[in-house]
Specification:
Blueprint: E1 10-15, H1 24-35, E2 41-45, H2 50-63, E3 68-75, H3 77-91, E4 99-103, H4 109-114, H5 121-131, E5 139-147, E6 152-155, E7 158-160, H6 163-171, H7 179-190, E8 197-205, E9 210-217, E10 219-223, E11 245-250, H8 255-261, E12 276-287, E13 292-295, E14 298-302, E15 305-315
Parallel strand pairs: 1-2, 1-3, 3-4
Antiparallel strand pairs: 5-6, 5-15, 7-10, 7-13, 8-9, 8-12, 10-11, 11-12, 12-15, 13-14
Helix pairs in contact: 1-5, 2-3, 6-7
InterPro entries: ATP-NAD_kinase_N, Diacylglycerol_kinase_cat_dom, Lipid_Phosphate_FormReg, NAD/diacylglycerol_kinase_sf, YegS/DAGK_C
Domain DAGKc: 5-149
Family: Belongs to the diacylglycerol/lipid kinase family.
């Protein structure tokens, strides 16, 4: 019997060890086992903190760019965000490595949008293998947030700069809870402090027209995909590959009307309400006092921020 040939390449599997209440490392190895069935290697990388993990991944991909089949991230949307940042950086250097997602986090909103199986790492890895050599594999637009101090962050799902950012801040402190239940409880805890924010917006719309306006609201999201917070479908019609973002705002509401609105976010039925406004845009600059921006469930920093889109920035295996 002939000896098997050398591996064709390698998958780099990056895992957030804290995701899924510690289940992510096990899920990463289960996914890696399946990824090896095609004759490729699968190297699992982990680290004690996200910064160290990003450095490991970046160094590995740079050193073995020609033989890397894909970067597979295992965790939640924050782990996806970290992986995207590396891939966008490498794409700027002419290195095009696709992204695979094995969801094992709190929100998993990119996975929801792309139809990736949520609680089955083997099925998610199987989806990656089936899409690996597909010439029609989709490309993912990436949101880019640029802050006044020069920092830049990429995101996959949405940037939040309203009540939902406050909710994220609280939810991230509750390490014993996961999924949409954690987000819902954080909403209920913060509803008593619901406040109207006066935003200053600089908008470039889908047609390239620019305008500046003041807008009051309780929610503001700049979305690349359809949901946030573990399944809140804020922009049900969002597309990840249209080269545009969706500016989602909700006008000032009292607590009772907000509680009427909130459950409709899970089904997308809120879009018919008069208080809801959704606009397709190329870029938005946002400023407001005492507001911290979040994206993909991760804290980015205080406003002001300018957000635009990197069209078709990353090939995604989903």
């Amino acid at each position: 019997m002939a000896e098997p040939g050398p591996p064709r390449g390698a998958f780099v599997v990056a895992v957030n060890p804290r995701a899924g209440r510690g289940r992510a490392v096990e899920d990463a190895h289960r996914a890696a086992e399946l990824l090896r069935t095609g004759g490729d290697e699968a190297v699992v990388l982990s680290a004690g903190d996200l910064g160290a993990l990003v450095a490991l991944v970046r160094d590995r991909l740079r050193a073995q760019a020609l033989t890397t089949r894909a970067l597979v991230v295992v965790g939640g949307d924050g782990m996806v965000q970290a992986g995207l940042g590396v891939l966008v950086e490498l794409a700027g250097q002419g290195i095009d490595i696709p992204l695979g997602v094995v969801p094992c986090g709190t929100g998993n909103d990119l996975a929801r949008h792309l139809g990736v199986p949520l609680r089955d790492p083997v099925a998610a890895a199987g989806r990656i293998l089936r899409r690996l050599d597909d010439p029609g594999a989709r490309r993912l637009d990436v949101g880019r947030a640029r802050f006044a101090d020069g920092r830049t962050s990429c995101f996959a799902t949405a940037l939040c700069a309203g009540f939902d950012a406050v909710v994220n801040e609280r939810a991230n402190r509750w390490l014993h809870l996961t999924g949409s239940t954690k987000y819902l409880l954080a909403v209920l805890a913060e509803i008593v402090r619901l406040r109207t924010v006066r935003y200053r917006l600089e908008i470039e719309d889908a047609g390239g027209r620019r305008r500046t306006e003041r807008r009051d609201g309780v929610l503001l999201n700049i979305a690349n995909t359809s949901s946030v917070g573990g399944g809140l479908r804020i922009v049900p019609g969002a597309r990840e590959d249209d080269g545009l973002l969706e500016l989602f705002t909700v006008a000032p509401l009292g607590r009772a009307r907000f509680l009427f609105l909130f459950p409709r976010l899970f089904s997308g039925r809120h879009v018919a309400l008069a208080s809801v406004r959704i606009e397709r845009v190329r870029s938005v600059a946002v400023d407001a006092p005492d507001v911290t921006a979040y994206a993909d469930g991760e804290r980015l920093g205080p406003l002001p921020v300018r957000v635009d889109v990197l069209p078709s920035a990353v090939r995604v295996l989903a």
